[in-house]
Amino acid sequence: MTKFLATTALIGALAMPAFAVEVAEGDTLAENQYFNYWLLDAIKSLDPALNTDVEGSASIRSLFEGLMNEDAQGEMVPGVAESFEVSDDGLTYTFTLREANWSNGEPVTAEDFVYGWQRVVTPETTSEYAWYMELMNVVNATQIVAGEMDPSELGVRAVDDRTFEVTLTTPTPFFINTLSHVTTFPVPRAVVEEHGNAWTQPGNIVGNGAYTLASHNLGVEIVFQKNPEYWDADNVVMETVRGITVNDSNVALTRYQAGELDRVQIPAGQYPRLAQESPDEAISVPRGCSYAYVFNLSDKGPEALKDQRVREAMALSLNREVMVDQILQGGQRPAYSWTHWAIAGFAEPSETFEDMPYEDRVARARELLEEAGYGPQNPVRLSLQYNTDESHRLLAVAAQQFWRPLGIEVTLNNVEWAVHTDRLQNQDFEIARYAWCADYNEASTFLDWFRTDGYNSGKWSNAEFDELLVEARTADDTAPLYQRAEEILAEEVPAVWVYHYSLNEMISPAIKGIPRENLLNTWYAKDLYRVEQ
Amino acid sequence: MFAFILRRLAVAIPTLLLLIIFSFILMSVAPGGPFTGERALPPAVLANLEAQYGLNDPLWLQIWNYLVAVVVHFDFGPSFVYPDRSVNQLIANGFPVTLTYGGTSFVVAVVTGVALGVAAAIWHNTWLDYLAVGISIGAQVLPNFVMAPLLVLVFTLWYRLLPGGGWSFNDPSFWIMPVIALSTSYMASIARITRSSMLEVLGSNHIRTARAKGMPEHRVILRHALKPAMLPVISYLGPVFVSMITGSVVIDIYFSTGGIGKAFVDSALNRDYAVMMGVTILIGALTILFNLIVDVLYAWIDPKIRY
């Protein structure tokens, strides 16, 4: 009993041909099709199951292809899956795979997806993203990750070579959106079994993406060449793609200006100048991450923070506008919700103090503190922990200055990243700087963080909030639920929202096709092309 | 001489063992671990990771297993942070790069530094001396993290002569800026040490004797002055050589050479225990080795040391 999906977005995905590069009118293609982009660091792993970072994901998207891809707006478009059907109860997805080959000429089959997915949840694979299959609600993922069940019990099945079936524990409105994530990509079993951990090294690796790995000099350069075996190779214009590591963002900018790189991120604070000097090249687009100061509300947390009035006063008196306009200066936005403002279908909560003038906010904060028994004569003493980074430091210093006149004395505590995360996980902090980036374009990717059994380092807990998120999993219209959840966060202030990220880049005018409307900033080398300058 | 070398070797091996044991202990007491990321890992995954890397054994057993693996199999294990690569591979990738630009820098620094120092001493208190002293002071106060981006600005952005970073063994244009940035301050120190030591030797009795018996000046300098004047320089060069060939974080970061200096610092920050230990052992062993070589050279030049 299956039927074609009813929602418009998904019908769109079915009806549309795969997203292919379209050379805009008036553009003359350059003879030499190459693209050099900046990498801050060495790529840690090219194994779809072991990758944990953004730069690694971009490389893996060149070398492999999953069921779905994202288009320039972040909408899902077919990848290896030609089409899919979903059962009436919303629990079974059946994907029909197109005829596609691995770079060694072998066909890509449903079995490759079954193997790839099972491999992720197998504890022996030691995938740090095993939780992703749990998030997708694939049947038995949780039990397998916990080591209680055999990986073969995962809710995936190769019906035949070209039919891949997934069973979910609960209807999951964002399921299709999770499929462009590299964790869900197929993996060639024979190659993995032959080479073990070294299977992703040049010479060994076999992929089904638009590119093959030409060379990989760790920490220096990774080179991709167009893959003639790719099913849509006729529509791939870009021939050679190079990821070049430059460990210092200022040097990277210099090398961009020297023409060695076609795309770099703009170092902090330099966006206004560059936007003025090179308006065609400097861009600022929303990036799906939110920055916050998280309060430790666990038993180990400080007494003062257990008083909601203190937390509210801190949220009110933090001048985010100054932090964004004077310190960050790169098109970020002051945050009045945890969920990034640009998340699809997200309605910002109505009752925030966003429209309140700053003086009124401070006055209200003073009142609240006074009610709680604090003030300049009897200050609250807290420590704010942040990990090593110049902009974290500047923002923390600013926060300190905003809070001090009210009688909130914050000492700054700078630690390196490994110590920071260790303390966050052990509730060994008072206030901590934190940021979260969206895994998929839907509000639950942010809100899940504050669930009672979510990552939730501050151990805030609210039953109604938890219920709203459970309800949202099966609701037809999630917007009011997420809006209410944000209102609860605004009322109880488990953290102070600081700002929503933007992505600031210099992009060579010769390079076309880099998406600017995709909140997750997902890009595919196969969608790019170089024009004659 | 042979007994002297043997004696020094006998001390070197326990030194290295102690270094390994202490580093291992220090590393394991540092807060955070290689797998503390933003998300707490599922317990079964963490258990497998720890089992794979032997982290759930008691510390003494971990150290013992590690020593056995390193000494018997010369296997430094898999990297924690780069799961696709082993530590041996990472070192084999990064060390030759560092050795190349570090070794070249060493030669450049020694040759120019000694030449500058000797010239300054011979033409003491002339414009040449002032120039040499000026250059060496200037080079010493210009730190390489200022010099590196400056070089990129001038040679890459303005004149477009050299690639702004990266590495190739076949194309020395990639080496030039790292070598200049790395060698200058060492060159300056070598020049200053050479100059003062040379001045001291030139004022000594045996030089006066040599000159008195009419020996040509170039023979006085090359045969009788240079050798004793090199003693303080050589004792300085041992540790310098090691620190140059084991890499500079600054050079690696600004020129993205893929060298081992940055790998070392990253391994500490990422708690990549295996890489950290591997590089520690490499640097430790090289330091011990080159100190030994310096001592031998010393004993060869100055028989008084051979006790």
Automatic annotation (TrEMBL), chain A:
Listed GO MF terms: peptide transmembrane transporter activity
Main location: periplasm
Cross-referenced InterPro entries: Peptide/Ni-bd, SBP_5, SBP_5_dom
Subcellular location: Periplasm
Alphabetized UniProt keyword annotations: Signal, Transport
UniProt-listed GO biological process terms: peptide transport
Residue intervals of the Solute-binding protein family domain: 75-455
Signal peptide coordinates: 1-20
SUPFAM superfamilies reported for this sequence: Periplasmic binding protein-like II
Domain of life of the organism encoding this protein: Bacteria
Gene3D superfamilies: Dipeptide-binding Protein, Domain 1, Dipeptide-binding Protein, Domain 3, Periplasmic binding protein-like II
GO cellular component: ATP-binding cassette (ABC) transporter complex; outer membrane-bounded periplasmic space
Family listed: Belongs to the bacterial solute-binding protein 5 family.
Protein name listed in UniProt: Peptide ABC transporter substrate-binding protein
Organism: Paracoccus aestuarii
UniProtKB/TrEMBL annotation, chain B:
Keywords: Cell membrane, Membrane, Transmembrane, Transmembrane helix, Transport
Top-level taxon: Bacteria
Source organism phylogeny: Bacteria, Pseudomonadati, Pseudomonadota, Alphaproteobacteria, Rhodobacterales
Descriptive protein name: Oligopeptide ABC transporter permease OppB
Any one annotated GO CC term: plasma membrane
PANTHER family in alphabetical order: DIPEPTIDE TRANSPORT SYSTEM PERMEASE PROTEIN DPPB-RELATED (PTHR43163)
Regions crossing the membrane: 99-123, 130-161, 173-191, 233-255, 275-301
Topology versus the membrane: Multi-pass membrane protein
Origin species: Paracoccus aestuarii
Protein family per UniProt: Belongs to the binding-protein-dependent transport system permease family.
Entry's Gene Ontology BP terms: transmembrane transport
Domain ABC transmembrane type-1, residue spans: 95-294
Compartment(s): Cell membrane
Gene responsible for this protein: oppB
